Amino acid sequence: MFESGFDLEGALVSGNDLIINYEDDTETEYTMTVTDHLNGAALYQLGFYEEQGDFEFYRVAIITDATAETADMFMAGTIGNDTITGGDGDDLIFGNEGDDNLTGGLGDDWFRGGGGNDTIDGGDNGAEVDTVSYFDADGAVTVDLGIQDGTTSQPVGGGMGDDILIGIENIEGSDFDDIFIGDAAANFIDGDYGNDTITGGAGNDTLTGGGGSDTFIYQSGDSGVDIIKDFQGYNGGDVLDLTLLTNAVDGDSIGSFFNLVEADGNTTVQVDADGVGQDYVDVVTLEGETGLDLTNMENDGNIVWTTPET
Length: 310
Fold this sequence. Notes:
CATH superfamily of the largest domain: Serralysin-like metalloprotease, C-terminal
CATH architecture of the largest domain: 2 Solenoid
Shape: elongated
């Protein structure tokens, strides 16, 4: 059992050793190795007092044969080509190395395909949401949730291979400068560290840039109202790229096209596409941000919104 403030991050088989990865509430990473302990498939139960103070049990299934099917599990594959299928619960599924086929089944499932060309299928879960994570990539990754036809692979980068995604709603990024694009669903996209570029897409998305100077891009036709959880509104901070929302050009006044509304400790950015200043619609809410000024944000580079005149 692990003491308070730890989150389980992964498990890996190396020879006969079980390697368990976890981190504390400062995001410091730790590794525990159980040596000379495996000679076949295995099932472990680990207890964590997690960051929020809740005690959680994880059942860790180490898959050493070609195919396994379990429920309510933390499942870890091998360096080979594994097929792992989750059950009706909220599964954590690690493919590790190899060209893996990972299927979540029902529940809110979390996948880490690892190296290799993986097929990751969250399933047609209705209200459930599934997450793909590239938290331990060794370079920048690129993922487009709009490409989920079941056959088209994406060159993810960062040593993560070319993955086929199906039924995935959420993304967790790496420590590098990632590029993420959402789809029409209500996505949750977490850039983690690095200077990330995030396009939420049409749904009511929840976005987190994480550490670094991140850019959030909005396009005409994105009908949702997003929430950015950690927008940093200062010189050298994060950027809202609103260029595609208006026909504004250099020399136009930012106040004719955009408006800021404060409520409940948050700031919502509104846009009037034609610049008349009468038909504002909500675009994004900057959670926890108040006291912002459009002109200052423009001068500090926190808003990009005009197209140079030709």
